[in-house]
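Here is one chain, start to finish.
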Amino acid sequence: MTGIDLKANLISRRAERRTVALVRLGPIIATAFLFRAAVGADGTGGGKISPVVPQFGPAEWGANASGPLCGIYAACTAVNMAGLEAHPRDFIAAKYVGQCAGSSPEELAAVVEDAGARAQILSRLSVFDLHLARCPVIANVRMTAARNRFDHWVVAIPSEAGVTIFDGIQNPYHIKTAEFLGTWSGIGICVTRDQQNPLATIWLGRSALMLAGVALGATFFFFFANGVSARNGLPRLYKQSCGLCAASVALAVAGNAVFGDLSNHAKGVAVATAPSQSRLYREGTLDDVRKAAAGADMLLVDARREQDYRLGTISRAVNVPVTASLWEIDRYLKAIGRDTPIVVFCQSANCDYDETVGAELTTLGFTDVTVCNEGYAELTKSQELARGL
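Its structure:
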């Protein structure tokens, strides 16, 4: 037998052994595939499984001190951070809360100074300025993203991950820099214990940054312009202009990378432009409310105030009151997928709380939000009529 015949015989035997192995393993493989199809890859029964929305416990929404006293709470928090003692109950007076909407910057500065600390009211601040100030800053923000008024006061402290917000007596919120900038008016009250001057520190920091930028730009501009002019015959002014533009672009990109929040820029823009954006939720009816109350894969949200929710609500509804801030809602619904169907309702057809909360949810990235054009009153009435029939 030649070498070619031996090689062909060896290949034939190997193929025969593979065939026998496949025949023996065939039933096992078939059974495994059938079991996977019947049970599902995740052991839940196969097919597409609708996610079950987790049930939420009640939240202490009122602890954020929303309303006219939010500035008093923020001022006392900042004073305590500065190393002194202050309690809101000592400053609930017309001198410090001059209108129903809340305190003005001057009134909050009076709270800080009467508590023994020093206050400086500043405007047109940036997050970079917060880092330079190195003291608690009472920031004027929008309570909710859907509002177009800056009607709330919190204490803002910059951190490595973004900005830490102290709102009322709740635990601090850690939010992204871009999200904070989307809600902040740029007005801040710097609170210090001694004669520290945050304004001087901020201006020195800004000046140093500007000088460094000008020096870097001039150096780049000089070498770029002279290098190009040595290689070709273009006019020097043209080359210098090109060098100056290139240096400006490089400085702008570097500044945004260092002091901005480019990775969360889109979210910050969404928060900043929320008041002027068209509503991204759809309008629904009581049928949507009934469907959400009966389905485990949907979230039903009661947008009424907490005290109204406690007096009675719809089965399976969770409370996200109209007074809740954007970061409160974000933390409360953190476990919910952004594609979860959500139905929002409030007291009646004349109530617009559900529209405000619906806009907040879409700003946070929820993509399937329905706002009911009727509310708890209409649903209760329809149930009473059904029982009467």
